[in-house]
Structures are given as structure tokens and as C-alpha cells.
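User: Quick sanity check before I run a bigger batch. Here is a single chain. Can you write out its predicted 3D structure?
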Amino acid sequence: MIFGKLVNKYYIKYWYRFLLGFIALGLVDYYQLQIPQAVQKIIDGIDKGTLVAAFLLTQIGYISLFALVIIVGRFFWRIFIFGASRKIGFDIRNEMFLHNEKLSNEYYSRHKVGGLMAHYTNDLEAVRNAMGPGLIMIFDALFMSILTFYLMMQVNVKLTVVAAIPLLLLAVFGGIIGAYLRRRFKELQQSFEGMSDFTNENFSGISVIKAFVKEKIESEEFDKLNQTMKDKTIQYVKLSTLFDIFIRTLISLVFVILIAYGGYIVVNTRGMTGAGTLSISELVLLIQYFGMLIWPMLAIGMVINRMSQGNASRIRIEAILNAEIDVFDSDDLHEIDSLNGNIEFKDLSFTYPGETNPVLKDISFQIKQGELVGIIGRTGSGKTSLVDLLLRIYNIQENTLLLDGYDIMHLPIKKIRNQIGYVPQDGFLFSDTINNNISLGIERDGDYLENIISSAKLSDVHDNITEFSEGYQTIVGERGVTLSGGQRQRISIARALIKEPPILILDDSVSAVDTNTEEKILKNLKKVRQNKTTILIAHRISTIKDANKIIVIDDGQLIGIGTHKELLSSCEFYKDMVERQKLEDELEAA
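Assistant: Done. Predicted structure follows.
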């Protein structure tokens, strides 16, 4: 039985299921022990020559009745105990997922997806097995053993003591080997985590691997990880198998001793009565009782195995659930219904958690409601970091970022993100229909299909979608693998536009489309985004040159702000970027 913060509450939640299951299991164990007594009576009648047909039929009737009770009891304890363990697995998986959703980007920068998936599969299954089959084994090992030994003591004390010796050896040996099993299983799970993460990354980036003809290298690397897991698995199985062999050897040895020593007592006390005597029927009864002890003895080994796995996995899962949620609502919140779209940065500096060098330094500027604002700068200058802070992805100093005059650190996170439409650089799409990808952020009421088509037209992707055989019901594949880069970006833009958010952020979201498509999208944005704030992060000057305001960032610092014309005369960095891109365009045209 495993205990800990993760599982204790579920014992309490499903206590009635466990109780009913153990009652059914107890009845099964009790009536299993009645069958040897009925058999003993039959053998005793045969031995004494007193067996009659009526008595034989009566005992057979009892055995049949006991068998029926056992069948029904086994059905119910499986329903109650196995059912409870399945429900617990369901609850823990939901608890893990809900907690993972609350963790920040910083957590996922340190923990890989493949590794996390190992917790949701192997580790969770190990915990479930410890709380279901493991509990049954513990109950059987204790209840069945105690009851059986009590009944055996009523028959012959000496033979019962002989049969008890293996359990003492198992208790000592089991405690020693359990610690080794836990360590081996933890190593096995860690190797599975590494292999799972490697496999996930390779399948996600299969097109890159093929493009660089790295199939053989990746296959060799996978072979190494697979070999490591194989070695860890063999080490674990060897240890658990040796323990199993030890148990079975003890059981076989005791069987031999019982038959030999018991037979000796029967021969030497035949025809005698009183203490220390043993009849053939009693010897058969003792052997049957000990035969029923085989499962509890084997269960001891399985219990140690299951509990070792369960505890190792419980600790790994608890590490996830104990991970600190570092981005959360403050106690002093300003409740708002909606945002207007006024944004102000006030001497904002920001350093990523765990880093020492700031990515943003003393940033100060304002964006008014309804403005179309461009943000430009070299790669790694801090543009994406700037908008991540608007989405409250990280914690920042108070009163350095204001939305509609309110400190963002004192606004509800859910409300902030609900009021912002965001298109990230990678334009992530789920392995679902185009319809469901676009409608991700809205309520799917009666006319939502019309809204999907409308937003697709605004992002200039409607015509591409209608060319697919399934139209808007086309499955895009994992991460939108069946679509081109431009199509993925435009579907991502449609997903943001359908929300009609007061603040829209496009993070280099038209880089994969041609200039004509880009112009159509920007023209549509100006049309539908009247009185709503729009922020465009771009590398191409053409994307932002008509913006109301352009913000130039370099090395985390604000080095220029103004319109396209104003920056050409006031910011050498911006002017240099314009000239370089103009030269690139001329070279391409030539």
C-alpha cells in the first residue's frame, strides 16, 4: 500500500468502494477455505468406510454453493477495487493536466514534453496498479494467510510452524530487495522518459531530419537510448525474477517437507487418538490449506514489486504537482469587464527567470486605443519578450506595464488573455479540423460558422481552404504539417481575428506569405480594426511602414519611436534597415 500527498485523498474519496470490495474479497477468501474442509470430510468417510451417497451429494452441494459465492464475490471485488483504481487514475491524470496548464513557460523550458508524457503513462499506470491490484495482494497476503494459519493450527501445530518459516524468510528478504527494486524501477522510468522525449522530438521534426538526410544518425542515437532502456529493464526484471524464484523454491521445499513429515506422522500415529496424531484426511486438509497459501506467498513478492514501482512513480508525479505556479493572480485585483486597448510601458526592465542578463532595459512608451503599432528590430533584440509580458506570461515589477491605466500585475490573468488576440511566430495548429482550429477561442453558438468564414476571408486563406476536398473540415495533421507555412500563419491569424479582441498582437505572422497576400491582410486589418489596438512585430519594413507608430528595439533597448517618415530622419538604425531591405529587394528583382 502506498501513501503520500498524491494518493491519500483518493483513499478517502473512494473509501466506500474499497470497503465493499474488501468485504467481497473477504467472503471469497473465507469460502475458499471451506472447500478443503468439505473435501476432508469426504476423504475421512472414504478412509473409515462410512461414506454414503447422500453424504457425498451433500458435500458436493456445499462445494458447489461455495464456488458460486466465490464467483459472485470475485466479480464484485473486481468491480469495486479495480473500478476505484481506474477512477483514481482518471482523477490523478486530470489533476496533473490542470496543474500543468497553470505552470509557466519557464517550467517548460526546463522540462521536455516527452519526459512529461512518461509521467502520464508509465508512472500513472504504476501508481494505479499499486492502489488497485497492489491493495488486493496486500489484503490477500494478510487476511488469507492469518485465517489459513489459524485453521492449520487447529489441525496440527508442528506442521503449521514448518509452513510458517518461509513467511519469516520472505519478510526479511522482501524488505531488503524492495529497496533495490525501487531504485532499479526509478532508473528504468528515467530511461523511458529520455527515450520518449527523443522519439517525440524526432517525430515532430521528421521533415527536418529527412531534409538533412540524418535518418541514420538519429536511428543510431535512438538505438543507444533503446539499448539503455533494454539494459535497465533487464536489470529490473532479473532482480524481480530472482525474488520470484526464491519464493517458489521456498514453497516447493515446504510442500516436500509437509508431505514427508506429515506422512511420517500419519504412519506412526495411525489408529491412535489425541494430541500429536494426524489422519490421512487431516494431512490432505493441511496440504490443501498450504496450497491456498501459495497465492498469498507469491502475492508478497508481487506486492513488494508493485509497491516499489508505485512509490517510485508517486514521487515522480508529486514532483510535477509540487512544481510552483509562479504566474498567478495577485490578492489585490482590479476587476474589469473589458479592455479598451491603451497600453503604457514605464521604465520596464525584464530578465528571464534563472538568467542574469536583462532582455529588456528601461522600456518606456505608450500605445493609444485604436493605434496600429509596428515593432521592429534585429533577431533576439527583445521584440517577442515585449509582447509576452503583455500576455502576462511572466511576472514583472509592479507599475511598469499598464493596461487602460491599471497595473497589469493587478488585473485578472484570464481577463487579460481573453481580451488579447495573439498570433505567435510559429503559428501553432492542433491536429484537428481547420474549422476547430479557427474557432478555438470563441463560443460555438448558432452563427459561429459564418464568423469562421469571415475571419478566414480577412486573413486571405478562405480560397485555399475551399480548394481542399474536405474544406473547413480538413484535418491539418500534427502542428499543421499538411499545410504550407503561409497557410498555417493565415489560419493562425484567422483564429485571432475571430475573437475580435480589443488588442491584437501579430508576432512576425506574415513572414511566410508573399507581399501581395501581406498587403491584402494588412488592408483588411485596417478595415476591421478601427478603434482597436493592433501590434505588428515584423522584420520587413513593408509590413509596418504605414503604422501609426513604429517602435524600434535593439539589444533590449528602445532606440527610436515615431512614424516611418519621422524615423527615417531621427533614427540611423531604422534608416540603415530601410536601405538594406531596399537593396535586397532590388537584387531580388534583378
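DSSP finds 21 helices and ten strands in the chain.

User: Great, the batch can go ahead then.
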